[in-house]
């Protein structure tokens, strides 16, 4: 029997009884010092050293009385979520007749029910497949069938959507009621409320840490903007490495109050915002979805108690664009604007943007209105977070760049050789693997006795290897990623690595074109859709989009390459204009011509009302092309 499982059992027994331990503060407390932590923490770290993984739900036992979550319905401690998840995990195990390592698809709103469902799936030793109600039934059917879901789990509000689908597909459906969430809300480890009945065997919550070290946790479907969504398998070990990487690079702390508005069927919301914060003992404030004026009011935190005021926000560029537009509408006078800037600038610790390119003009505008420099990072469902601007010094966060590899990530630029057609490495930049030991001290919790001294807690300087000397050392080509948190296969796809995803020596081919210059990576776009080959030049759609968004009349823009007889492809612009403005192609070219070379300028332009974007706020170029491609063609030369 492993030491940690034994300790966890002792702890579970304590959770069932009124607490007799020293100096517990209640739900709003910040410092947690408890005798049991030392033993538990040491055993967890021992397990990690032996190759095990301490899943996020089990880390909750290190800070049970802290507030983990505040959603629309109430406040939940870590112990409360853990307790509710353990009850649900028994229902899951009963449904699956004890079987484990099965895929369980679940649909919950962005609130406690999501965390409880996910932790319950993990406690029962199964693989969580998050679904979103934003997807139509046909897509949901695809996810259920592709992931070979053994069970579908949802809250009552989604029964209407999932009942007919599960009936048609002959899949069992488990509905979790609100009582489960109430259990979490009301549960306090130092009360005997909802004390489990004696026959409940809570001593066996979850598998051992070494089991989690070898097993799969999550399936995240790719956005499928260029092909059918593929299920990326996330192991518990990948999650643990990524969480450690983000903790050391962006300095997560138990004192963070994280405003969560991102969808949870995507790695950005799951990892950066939710799991990494919960693993740090932070307080999550979850909104059901992103609504700009609600986000503004939470960011400003007027009338709220200090310990609930938001300090961290993770968003996609489209969210920041909405916040900027509402800022212009809502905060008209100079005094209010100054108040907004002073409040955000003094209180927010970190505001991160990613999952899609952050246009330069938005980066600068956000700094102007909030006093905060956004930290832009690059990530993918397959690799989690890979590249990031620095956390410190703040001034080094650069416009239009995604910085350097995060801890544990190796990034490479490679180009296809014209003579042999082989992919040739140009430059590799590699950051040492992060320390995965849990250190409460680093998270702003507990006492010095637990500090584990190691350099790995810092984001260390990467090592750079130039494979091919170039005159200007500006490397340009396909972005490849390698490291312990990179996925190894898609669900339901042949287990053999196929060369279109990985190189023979195990580098993941991202499908993005990037450059590495002056010590920074820059993303130029998806090679298949954003790199436009026009008249012998290669144009990055992202660079053109960023430049034309500077125009005062343009609210939103997408650049496409449209097939053309003379040029191969032409650069074409689809734009949404700001209210009461007009714009001709000539005017756009005159303005953009100050920043772009003539061959980068759009040759055709179409004004539309609403830009097609997916649930993550990314431009849906497949849809844009389908809807508007024909209208963007140049007239045929007779
Ligand atoms: P997904 O797997 O849905 O997260 O999509 C990953 C893709 O989003 C990447 O391959 C990039 O094309 C794009 N992406 C993510 N972050 C950035 C960024 N900071 N700048 C530009 N593109 C990004």
From TrEMBL:
It comes from the Eukaryota. InterPro entries: AMP-bd_C (IPR025110), AMP-bd_C_sf (IPR045851), AMP-binding_CS (IPR020845), AMP-dep_synth/lig_dom (IPR000873), ANL_N_sf (IPR042099). Residues 543-618 form the AMP-binding enzyme C-terminal domain. It holds the Pfam family AMP-binding_C. Residues 58-417 form the AMP-dependent synthetase/ligase domain. PROSITE patterns: AMP_BINDING. GO terms for biological process: fatty acid metabolic process. GO terms for molecular function: medium-chain fatty acid-CoA ligase activity. Belongs to the ATP-dependent AMP-binding enzyme family. This is Acyl-CoA synthetase family member 3, mitochondrial. It comes from Mythimna separata (Oriental armyworm). The lineage of its organism: Eukaryota, Metazoa, Ecdysozoa, Arthropoda, Hexapoda.
């Amino acid at each position: 029997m492993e030491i940690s499982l034994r300790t966890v059992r002792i702890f579970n027994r304590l959770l069932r009884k009124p607490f007799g331990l020293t100096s517990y503060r209640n739900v709003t407390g910040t410092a947690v010092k408890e005798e049991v932590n030392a033993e538990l923490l040491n055993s967890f770290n021992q397990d990690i050293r032996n190759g095990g993984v301490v899943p996020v739900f089990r880390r909750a036992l290190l800070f049970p009385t802290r507030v983990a979550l505040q959603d629309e319905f109430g406040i939940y401690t870590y112990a409360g979520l853990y307790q509710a998840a353990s009850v649900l995990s028994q229902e899951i195990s009963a449904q699956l007749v004890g079987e484990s390592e099965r895929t369980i698809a679940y649909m919950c709103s962005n609130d406690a029910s999501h965390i409880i469902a996910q932790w319950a799936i993990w406690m029962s030793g199964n693989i969580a497949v998050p679904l979103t109600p934003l997807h139509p039934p046909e897509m949901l059917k695809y996810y259920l069938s592709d992931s070979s879901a053994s069970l579908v789990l949802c809250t009552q509000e989604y029964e209407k959507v999932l009942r007919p689908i599960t009936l048609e597909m002959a899949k069992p459906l488990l509905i979790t009621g609100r009582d489960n969430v109430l259990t979490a809300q009301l549960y306090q480890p130092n009360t005997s409320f909802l004390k489990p009945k004696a026959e409940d065997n809570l001593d066996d919550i979850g598998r051992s840490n070494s089991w989690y070290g070898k097993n799969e946790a999550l399936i995240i479907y790719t956005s499928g903007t260029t092909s059918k969504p593929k299920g990326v398998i996330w192991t518990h070990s990948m999650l643990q490495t990524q969480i450690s990487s983000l903790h050391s690079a962006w300095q997560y702390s138990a004192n963070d109050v994280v405003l969560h508005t991102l969808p949870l069927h995507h790695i950005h919301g799951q990892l950066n915002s939710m799991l990494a914060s919960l693993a740090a003992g932070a307080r999550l404030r979850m909104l059901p979805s992103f609504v700009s004026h609600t986000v503004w009011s939470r960011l400003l935190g007027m009338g709220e108690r200090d310990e609930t005021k938001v300090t961290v926000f993770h968003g996609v560029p489209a969210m920041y664009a909405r916040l900027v537009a509402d800022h212009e509408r809502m905060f008209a006078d100079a005094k209010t604007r100054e108040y907004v800037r002073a409040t955000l600038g003094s209180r927010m610790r970190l505001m991160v943007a990613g999952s899609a390119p952050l246009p330069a003009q938005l980066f600068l505008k956000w700094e102007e209105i909030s006093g905060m420099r956004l930290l832009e990072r690059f990530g993918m469902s397959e690799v989690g977070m890979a590249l990031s601007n620095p956390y410190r010094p703040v001034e080094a966060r650069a416009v239009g760049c995604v910085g350097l590899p995060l801890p544990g990530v190796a990034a490479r630029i490679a180009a296809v050789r014209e003579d042999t057609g082989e992919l040739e490495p140009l430059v590799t930049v590699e950051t040492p693997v992060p320390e995965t030991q849990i250190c409460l001290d680093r998270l702003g919790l507990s006492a010095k006795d637990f500090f584990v001294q190691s350099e790995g807690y810092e984001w260390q300087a990467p090592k750079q290897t130039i494979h091919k000397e170039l005159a200007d050392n500006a490397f340009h080509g396909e972005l490849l990623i390698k490291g312990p948190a990179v996925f190894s296969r898609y669900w339901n796809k042949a287990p053999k690595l196929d060369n279109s995803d990985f190189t023979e020596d195990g580098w993941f081919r991202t499908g993005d074109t990037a450059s590495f210059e002056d010590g920074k990576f820059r993303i130029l776009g998806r090679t298949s859709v954003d790199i436009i080959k026009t008249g012998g030049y290669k144009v990055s759609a992202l660079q053109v989009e960023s430049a034309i968004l500077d125009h005062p009349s343009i609210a939103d823009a997408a650049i496409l390459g449209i097939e053309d007889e003379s040029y191969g492809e032409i650069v074409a612009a689809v734009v949404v204009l700001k209210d009461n403005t007009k714009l001709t192609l000539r005017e756009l070219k005159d303005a953009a011509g100050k920043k772009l070379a003539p061959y980068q300028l759009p040759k055709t332009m179409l004004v539309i009302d609403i830009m097609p974007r997916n649930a993550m706020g990314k431009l849906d170029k497949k849809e844009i092309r389908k809807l508007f491609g024909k209208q963007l063609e140049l007239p045929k030369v007779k």
